[in-house]
Write a structure and sequence with these properties.
Layout lengths: L1 H17 L6 E7 L4 E4 L4 E10 L3 E7 L8 E2 L4 H4 L1 E7 L2 E8 L8 E8 L11 H4 L1 E10 L3 E4 L3 E3 L8 E9 L4 E8 L2 E2 L9 E6 L8 E9 L5 E16 L2 E5 L4 E10 L3 E8 L2 E5 L6 E6 L2 E6 L9 E8 L4 E11 L6 H22 L19 H16 L1
Parallel strand pairs: 2-9, 11-17, 18-25
Antiparallel strand pairs: 1-3, 3-7, 4-5, 4-8, 6-7, 8-9, 10-12, 12-15, 13-14, 13-16, 16-17, 17-19, 19-23, 20-21, 20-24, 22-23, 24-25
Amino acid sequence: MHSRTAVVAVVLLGHAMLLPFTWAQNAGFVKSPMSEIKLTGDTFELYCDVVGNPVPEIQWWYAEINRADSFKQLWGGARKRRVTINTAHGANCVSVLGITRLTLEDSGTYECRASNDPKRNDHRQNPALSWIRAQATITVLQKPKINASDQIILSAETHAQPFTMWCNLTTTDNVPQDSFWMKNGVEIDTTRTKNKDTSHRINKAKADDAGEYMCVYTFEKAPNANTTIEVKAAPDITGHKRSENKKEGENATMYCKSVGYPHPVWTWRKLDGIFYTDIDNSSGRFFITNRDNYTELNVLNLDITTDPGEYHCNATNMIGTSGTTTILRVRSLLAPLWPFLGVLAEVIILVIIIVVYEKRKKPDEIMDDDEPAVPIKTNSTNNHKEKNIRQRNQK
Protein backbone atom coordinates (compact mmCIF):
# COMPACT_ATOMS: atom_id res chain seq x y z
CA MET A 1 0.00 0.00 0.00
CA HIS A 2 2.77 2.40 0.90
CA SER A 3 4.61 1.53 -2.33
CA ARG A 4 1.56 2.41 -4.46
CA THR A 5 1.18 5.72 -2.66
CA ALA A 6 4.83 6.50 -3.31
CA VAL A 7 4.47 5.70 -7.02
CA VAL A 8 1.41 7.97 -7.34
CA ALA A 9 3.26 10.75 -5.58
CA VAL A 10 6.23 10.42 -7.91
CA VAL A 11 3.94 10.48 -10.98
CA LEU A 12 2.12 13.59 -9.80
CA LEU A 13 5.41 15.28 -9.03
CA GLY A 14 6.64 14.45 -12.55
CA HIS A 15 3.54 15.94 -14.16
CA ALA A 16 3.93 19.05 -12.07
CA MET A 17 7.54 19.44 -13.19
CA LEU A 18 6.48 19.10 -16.86
CA LEU A 19 3.91 21.92 -16.62
CA PRO A 20 5.12 25.18 -18.24
CA PHE A 21 6.56 27.66 -15.86
CA THR A 22 4.15 30.55 -15.32
CA TRP A 23 4.45 33.77 -13.40
CA ALA A 24 2.12 36.58 -12.44
CA GLN A 25 2.48 39.96 -14.15
CA ASN A 26 0.61 43.09 -13.17
CA ALA A 27 -1.40 44.85 -15.88
CA GLY A 28 0.49 47.46 -17.92
CA PHE A 29 -0.34 49.68 -20.91
CA VAL A 30 1.17 48.88 -24.30
CA LYS A 31 -0.91 51.56 -26.07
CA SER A 32 -2.99 54.27 -24.40
CA PRO A 33 -5.84 56.36 -25.88
CA MET A 34 -4.84 59.71 -27.45
CA SER A 35 -6.64 63.04 -27.12
CA GLU A 36 -8.33 64.40 -30.27
CA ILE A 37 -10.28 67.40 -31.57
CA LYS A 38 -13.31 66.52 -33.68
CA LEU A 39 -16.21 68.22 -35.42
CA THR A 40 -19.89 67.55 -34.91
CA GLY A 41 -21.09 64.70 -37.10
CA ASP A 42 -17.65 63.06 -37.18
CA THR A 43 -16.55 59.74 -35.63
CA PHE A 44 -13.72 58.93 -33.23
CA GLU A 45 -12.07 55.74 -32.00
CA LEU A 46 -9.89 55.26 -28.91
CA TYR A 47 -7.51 52.30 -28.59
CA CYS A 48 -6.34 50.65 -25.41
CA ASP A 49 -3.81 47.78 -25.42
CA VAL A 50 -2.91 46.14 -22.10
CA VAL A 51 -0.53 43.31 -21.19
CA GLY A 52 -0.48 41.18 -18.06
CA ASN A 53 -0.76 37.66 -16.66
CA PRO A 54 -3.54 36.70 -16.23
CA VAL A 55 -4.86 38.66 -19.23
CA PRO A 56 -6.37 41.87 -17.84
CA GLU A 57 -9.93 43.10 -18.06
CA ILE A 58 -10.59 46.50 -19.72
CA GLN A 59 -13.38 48.94 -18.94
CA TRP A 60 -14.25 52.34 -20.44
CA TRP A 61 -15.38 55.31 -18.35
CA TYR A 62 -16.46 58.88 -19.17
CA ALA A 63 -16.56 62.21 -17.37
CA GLU A 64 -17.68 65.61 -18.60
CA ILE A 65 -15.02 68.30 -19.02
CA ASN A 66 -13.93 69.84 -15.71
CA ARG A 67 -15.85 67.18 -13.76
CA ALA A 68 -13.29 64.49 -13.08
CA ASP A 69 -15.26 63.29 -10.06
CA SER A 70 -18.29 62.29 -12.13
CA PHE A 71 -16.95 59.29 -14.08
CA LYS A 72 -19.56 56.86 -15.36
CA GLN A 73 -18.92 53.52 -17.00
CA LEU A 74 -19.63 53.30 -20.74
CA TRP A 75 -21.37 50.33 -22.34
CA GLY A 76 -21.82 49.30 -25.96
CA GLY A 77 -25.09 50.62 -27.40
CA ALA A 78 -25.20 53.69 -25.16
CA ARG A 79 -26.07 57.19 -26.41
CA LYS A 80 -28.77 55.98 -28.77
CA ARG A 81 -26.59 53.15 -30.05
CA ARG A 82 -23.81 55.50 -31.11
CA VAL A 83 -21.31 53.86 -28.75
CA THR A 84 -19.49 50.64 -29.70
CA ILE A 85 -16.91 48.73 -27.62
CA ASN A 86 -14.95 45.90 -29.23
CA THR A 87 -12.55 43.88 -27.08
CA ALA A 88 -10.24 41.02 -28.05
CA HIS A 89 -8.29 38.76 -25.68
CA GLY A 90 -5.04 37.06 -26.66
CA ALA A 91 -1.55 37.47 -25.29
CA ASN A 92 -2.74 41.05 -24.66
CA CYS A 93 -6.16 42.54 -24.14
CA VAL A 94 -7.07 45.11 -26.81
CA SER A 95 -10.20 47.26 -26.65
CA VAL A 96 -11.54 49.91 -29.06
CA LEU A 97 -14.11 52.51 -28.06
CA GLY A 98 -15.96 54.18 -30.94
CA ILE A 99 -18.61 56.90 -31.03
CA THR A 100 -20.35 57.99 -34.25
CA ARG A 101 -22.35 61.11 -35.23
CA LEU A 102 -20.61 63.24 -32.61
CA THR A 103 -22.44 66.03 -30.81
CA LEU A 104 -21.10 68.83 -28.62
CA GLU A 105 -22.21 66.82 -25.56
CA ASP A 106 -19.74 64.05 -26.46
CA SER A 107 -16.84 66.27 -25.39
CA GLY A 108 -15.16 65.08 -22.20
CA THR A 109 -12.56 62.82 -20.63
CA TYR A 110 -12.54 59.17 -21.65
CA GLU A 111 -10.70 56.71 -19.44
CA CYS A 112 -9.42 53.22 -20.14
CA ARG A 113 -9.20 51.13 -16.96
CA ALA A 114 -7.44 47.76 -16.80
CA SER A 115 -6.83 45.21 -14.09
CA ASN A 116 -5.99 41.53 -13.59
CA ASP A 117 -6.30 41.67 -9.81
CA PRO A 118 -8.57 38.76 -8.73
CA LYS A 119 -10.27 41.13 -6.25
CA ARG A 120 -10.72 44.00 -8.74
CA ASN A 121 -14.53 43.82 -8.62
CA ASP A 122 -14.72 43.55 -4.83
CA HIS A 123 -16.52 46.68 -3.61
CA ARG A 124 -14.51 46.58 -0.41
CA GLN A 125 -11.31 46.93 -2.48
CA ASN A 126 -10.01 50.41 -3.28
CA PRO A 127 -10.37 50.78 -7.11
CA ALA A 128 -7.37 53.08 -7.21
CA LEU A 129 -5.20 50.18 -6.06
CA SER A 130 -6.77 47.50 -8.29
CA TRP A 131 -7.10 49.33 -11.63
CA ILE A 132 -4.59 51.17 -13.79
CA ARG A 133 -5.93 54.10 -15.80
CA ALA A 134 -5.17 56.04 -19.02
CA GLN A 135 -7.13 59.11 -20.08
CA ALA A 136 -7.81 60.98 -23.31
CA THR A 137 -9.68 64.25 -23.82
CA ILE A 138 -12.10 64.49 -26.75
CA THR A 139 -13.07 68.01 -27.80
CA VAL A 140 -16.01 68.33 -30.17
CA LEU A 141 -16.36 71.61 -32.06
CA GLN A 142 -19.28 72.87 -34.11
CA LYS A 143 -18.75 71.93 -37.74
CA PRO A 144 -18.50 74.96 -40.05
CA LYS A 145 -21.35 75.44 -42.48
CA ILE A 146 -20.41 74.96 -46.14
CA ASN A 147 -22.77 75.59 -49.03
CA ALA A 148 -21.97 73.57 -52.14
CA SER A 149 -23.25 72.84 -55.63
CA ASP A 150 -25.51 69.85 -56.23
CA GLN A 151 -24.42 66.55 -57.69
CA ILE A 152 -23.66 66.46 -61.42
CA ILE A 153 -24.69 63.70 -63.81
CA LEU A 154 -22.68 63.31 -67.01
CA SER A 155 -24.54 61.95 -70.04
CA ALA A 156 -24.03 61.54 -73.76
CA GLU A 157 -25.56 65.00 -74.25
CA THR A 158 -23.03 66.63 -71.88
CA HIS A 159 -20.00 64.77 -73.23
CA ALA A 160 -17.03 67.09 -73.92
CA GLN A 161 -18.94 70.04 -72.42
CA PRO A 162 -17.59 72.02 -69.42
CA PHE A 163 -19.01 71.96 -65.88
CA THR A 164 -18.10 73.74 -62.62
CA MET A 165 -18.37 72.76 -58.95
CA TRP A 166 -18.30 75.36 -56.16
CA CYS A 167 -18.22 75.67 -52.36
CA ASN A 168 -18.80 78.59 -50.00
CA LEU A 169 -17.70 78.65 -46.32
CA THR A 170 -20.51 80.64 -44.68
CA THR A 171 -20.23 80.01 -40.91
CA THR A 172 -17.27 79.08 -38.71
CA ASP A 173 -16.06 79.69 -35.16
CA ASN A 174 -12.41 79.36 -36.22
CA VAL A 175 -10.05 81.29 -38.46
CA PRO A 176 -9.77 79.59 -41.88
CA GLN A 177 -6.35 79.20 -43.50
CA ASP A 178 -6.90 77.92 -47.02
CA SER A 179 -9.01 75.57 -49.15
CA PHE A 180 -8.35 72.94 -51.80
CA TRP A 181 -10.12 70.29 -53.85
CA MET A 182 -9.80 66.49 -53.78
CA LYS A 183 -10.99 63.75 -56.10
CA ASN A 184 -11.46 60.23 -54.74
CA GLY A 185 -9.32 61.07 -51.70
CA VAL A 186 -6.40 62.61 -53.64
CA GLU A 187 -5.68 66.34 -53.65
CA ILE A 188 -6.01 68.00 -57.07
CA ASP A 189 -2.95 70.04 -57.99
CA THR A 190 -3.11 73.84 -58.27
CA THR A 191 -6.44 74.11 -56.44
CA ARG A 192 -5.25 75.67 -53.16
CA THR A 193 -6.58 79.15 -52.42
CA LYS A 194 -7.15 81.51 -49.48
CA ASN A 195 -10.71 82.32 -50.52
CA LYS A 196 -13.82 81.19 -48.68
CA ASP A 197 -15.50 80.85 -52.07
CA THR A 198 -13.80 78.19 -54.16
CA SER A 199 -14.62 76.39 -57.41
CA HIS A 200 -13.26 73.71 -59.67
CA ARG A 201 -13.91 73.60 -63.42
CA ILE A 202 -13.71 70.69 -65.86
CA ASN A 203 -13.34 71.96 -69.42
CA LYS A 204 -14.27 68.79 -71.37
CA ALA A 205 -16.45 66.38 -69.47
CA LYS A 206 -15.90 62.63 -69.94
CA ALA A 207 -16.67 59.49 -67.95
CA ASP A 208 -13.16 59.52 -66.46
CA ASP A 209 -14.02 62.82 -64.70
CA ALA A 210 -16.77 61.14 -62.67
CA GLY A 211 -16.03 60.48 -59.00
CA GLU A 212 -16.30 61.83 -55.47
CA TYR A 213 -15.09 65.43 -55.25
CA MET A 214 -14.49 67.20 -51.97
CA CYS A 215 -13.79 70.84 -51.13
CA VAL A 216 -11.67 71.05 -47.96
CA TYR A 217 -11.12 74.03 -45.62
CA THR A 218 -8.23 74.13 -43.14
CA PHE A 219 -8.15 76.07 -39.86
CA GLU A 220 -5.50 77.18 -37.39
CA LYS A 221 -6.90 75.48 -34.28
CA ALA A 222 -9.55 73.12 -35.57
CA PRO A 223 -9.79 70.02 -37.77
CA ASN A 224 -10.36 70.35 -41.50
CA ALA A 225 -13.94 70.83 -42.65
CA ASN A 226 -15.22 69.49 -45.94
CA THR A 227 -18.25 68.68 -48.01
CA THR A 228 -18.70 66.22 -50.86
CA ILE A 229 -20.01 66.70 -54.40
CA GLU A 230 -20.66 63.60 -56.49
CA VAL A 231 -20.12 63.63 -60.24
CA LYS A 232 -21.87 60.59 -61.70
CA ALA A 233 -21.54 58.90 -65.07
CA ALA A 234 -22.42 55.58 -66.66
CA PRO A 235 -19.58 53.00 -66.80
CA ASP A 236 -17.29 53.10 -69.82
CA ILE A 237 -15.06 50.06 -70.25
CA THR A 238 -11.58 51.30 -71.12
CA GLY A 239 -9.54 48.10 -70.97
CA HIS A 240 -10.02 44.37 -71.52
CA LYS A 241 -8.46 41.36 -73.22
CA ARG A 242 -9.68 40.93 -76.76
CA SER A 243 -8.65 37.27 -76.72
CA GLU A 244 -6.96 34.70 -74.49
CA ASN A 245 -5.10 31.72 -75.97
CA LYS A 246 -4.28 28.81 -73.69
CA LYS A 247 -3.68 25.05 -73.75
CA GLU A 248 -6.08 22.56 -72.20
CA GLY A 249 -5.33 22.02 -68.51
CA GLU A 250 -3.88 25.51 -68.07
CA ASN A 251 -5.53 28.47 -66.30
CA ALA A 252 -6.96 31.49 -68.14
CA THR A 253 -7.36 35.06 -66.86
CA MET A 254 -9.68 37.65 -68.39
CA TYR A 255 -10.33 41.14 -67.06
CA CYS A 256 -12.23 44.37 -67.67
CA LYS A 257 -11.70 47.85 -66.24
CA SER A 258 -13.88 50.92 -66.52
CA VAL A 259 -14.31 54.56 -65.64
CA GLY A 260 -17.48 56.14 -64.31
CA TYR A 261 -19.11 56.64 -60.91
CA PRO A 262 -20.61 55.16 -58.76
CA HIS A 263 -18.50 52.01 -58.99
CA PRO A 264 -20.38 49.45 -61.07
CA VAL A 265 -21.81 46.05 -60.31
CA TRP A 266 -19.86 43.54 -62.43
CA THR A 267 -21.25 40.40 -64.06
CA TRP A 268 -19.69 37.75 -66.34
CA ARG A 269 -21.55 35.61 -68.89
CA LYS A 270 -20.58 33.02 -71.51
CA LEU A 271 -22.23 32.70 -74.91
CA ASP A 272 -23.63 29.18 -75.39
CA GLY A 273 -25.14 29.00 -78.85
CA ILE A 274 -27.49 31.97 -79.02
CA PHE A 275 -28.02 32.35 -75.24
CA TYR A 276 -25.81 33.72 -72.47
CA THR A 277 -25.09 31.71 -69.30
CA ASP A 278 -24.30 33.58 -66.07
CA ILE A 279 -20.97 32.78 -64.40
CA ASP A 280 -20.40 32.81 -60.62
CA ASN A 281 -17.98 31.35 -58.10
CA SER A 282 -20.04 28.24 -57.34
CA SER A 283 -18.59 25.90 -59.99
CA GLY A 284 -15.18 25.45 -58.36
CA ARG A 285 -13.33 26.33 -61.60
CA PHE A 286 -14.58 29.85 -62.28
CA PHE A 287 -13.52 32.60 -59.86
CA ILE A 288 -14.60 36.25 -60.19
CA THR A 289 -12.80 39.05 -58.33
CA ASN A 290 -14.36 42.53 -58.32
CA ARG A 291 -12.63 45.67 -57.06
CA ASP A 292 -14.31 49.03 -57.69
CA ASN A 293 -13.80 49.74 -61.43
CA TYR A 294 -12.00 46.45 -62.12
CA THR A 295 -13.12 42.84 -62.51
CA GLU A 296 -11.21 39.64 -63.19
CA LEU A 297 -12.37 36.18 -64.25
CA ASN A 298 -10.09 33.19 -63.66
CA VAL A 299 -10.86 29.81 -65.24
CA LEU A 300 -8.93 26.86 -63.81
CA ASN A 301 -7.96 23.59 -65.54
CA LEU A 302 -9.28 24.52 -68.98
CA ASP A 303 -11.47 22.01 -70.80
CA ILE A 304 -11.03 22.04 -74.58
CA THR A 305 -14.65 20.96 -75.22
CA THR A 306 -16.63 23.27 -72.90
CA ASP A 307 -14.50 26.33 -72.09
CA PRO A 308 -13.64 27.92 -75.48
CA GLY A 309 -15.97 30.67 -76.62
CA GLU A 310 -17.07 34.27 -76.03
CA TYR A 311 -17.03 35.66 -72.48
CA HIS A 312 -18.91 38.89 -71.83
CA CYS A 313 -18.19 41.27 -68.92
CA ASN A 314 -20.86 43.83 -68.00
CA ALA A 315 -20.62 46.92 -65.77
CA THR A 316 -23.82 48.53 -64.47
CA ASN A 317 -24.52 51.44 -62.12
CA MET A 318 -27.50 53.68 -61.51
CA ILE A 319 -26.65 55.84 -64.52
CA GLY A 320 -26.14 53.20 -67.21
CA THR A 321 -24.43 50.04 -68.37
CA SER A 322 -21.54 48.95 -70.59
CA GLY A 323 -20.13 45.61 -71.75
CA THR A 324 -17.50 43.98 -73.94
CA THR A 325 -16.39 40.52 -75.09
CA THR A 326 -13.24 38.41 -74.74
CA ILE A 327 -12.69 35.33 -76.93
CA LEU A 328 -11.12 32.34 -75.16
CA ARG A 329 -9.31 29.79 -77.34
CA VAL A 330 -8.16 26.48 -75.90
CA ARG A 331 -5.62 24.44 -77.87
CA SER A 332 -5.00 20.71 -77.59
CA LEU A 333 -1.89 19.43 -75.85
CA LEU A 334 -0.91 17.95 -79.24
CA ALA A 335 -0.92 21.38 -80.87
CA PRO A 336 2.93 21.66 -80.87
CA LEU A 337 3.07 18.39 -82.83
CA TRP A 338 0.72 19.54 -85.59
CA PRO A 339 3.45 20.87 -87.94
CA PHE A 340 5.39 17.59 -87.65
CA LEU A 341 2.23 15.53 -88.13
CA GLY A 342 1.39 17.60 -91.23
CA VAL A 343 4.79 16.93 -92.80
CA LEU A 344 4.54 13.24 -91.88
CA ALA A 345 1.10 13.02 -93.51
CA GLU A 346 2.44 14.59 -96.70
CA VAL A 347 5.31 12.06 -96.84
CA ILE A 348 2.94 9.14 -96.32
CA ILE A 349 0.60 10.36 -99.07
CA LEU A 350 3.54 10.82 -101.46
CA VAL A 351 4.80 7.28 -100.80
CA ILE A 352 1.33 5.85 -101.40
CA ILE A 353 1.07 7.70 -104.72
CA ILE A 354 4.44 6.37 -105.88
CA VAL A 355 3.57 2.78 -104.92
CA VAL A 356 0.20 2.91 -106.69
CA TYR A 357 1.78 4.42 -109.78
CA GLU A 358 4.44 1.69 -109.99
CA LYS A 359 1.88 -1.07 -109.64
CA ARG A 360 -0.33 0.31 -112.42
CA LYS A 361 2.41 0.46 -115.13
CA LYS A 362 1.69 -1.53 -118.46
CA PRO A 363 3.44 -4.92 -118.70
CA ASP A 364 5.11 -4.15 -122.10
CA GLU A 365 6.71 -1.10 -120.51
CA ILE A 366 8.63 -3.42 -118.23
CA MET A 367 11.82 -4.92 -119.85
CA ASP A 368 12.59 -8.58 -119.24
CA ASP A 369 16.24 -9.09 -118.34
CA ASP A 370 16.32 -12.62 -120.00
CA GLU A 371 15.43 -11.32 -123.48
CA PRO A 372 18.34 -10.45 -125.90
CA ALA A 373 18.91 -6.90 -126.88
CA VAL A 374 18.80 -7.65 -130.73
CA PRO A 375 15.74 -9.02 -132.54
CA ILE A 376 15.73 -12.80 -133.37
CA LYS A 377 15.31 -13.97 -136.93
CA THR A 378 12.20 -16.06 -137.48
CA ASN A 379 11.70 -19.18 -139.77
CA SER A 380 9.53 -17.15 -142.12
CA THR A 381 12.44 -14.90 -142.91
CA ASN A 382 14.76 -17.86 -143.63
CA ASN A 383 12.19 -19.46 -145.93
CA HIS A 384 11.80 -16.24 -147.83
CA LYS A 385 15.56 -16.06 -148.45
CA GLU A 386 15.67 -19.72 -149.69
CA LYS A 387 12.85 -19.03 -152.11
CA ASN A 388 14.71 -16.10 -153.63
CA ILE A 389 17.84 -18.27 -154.19
CA ARG A 390 15.85 -20.96 -156.10
CA GLN A 391 14.30 -18.37 -158.40
CA ARG A 392 17.72 -17.02 -159.42
CA ASN A 393 19.05 -20.53 -160.14
CA GLN A 394 16.18 -21.31 -162.54
CA LYS A 395 16.95 -18.32 -164.61
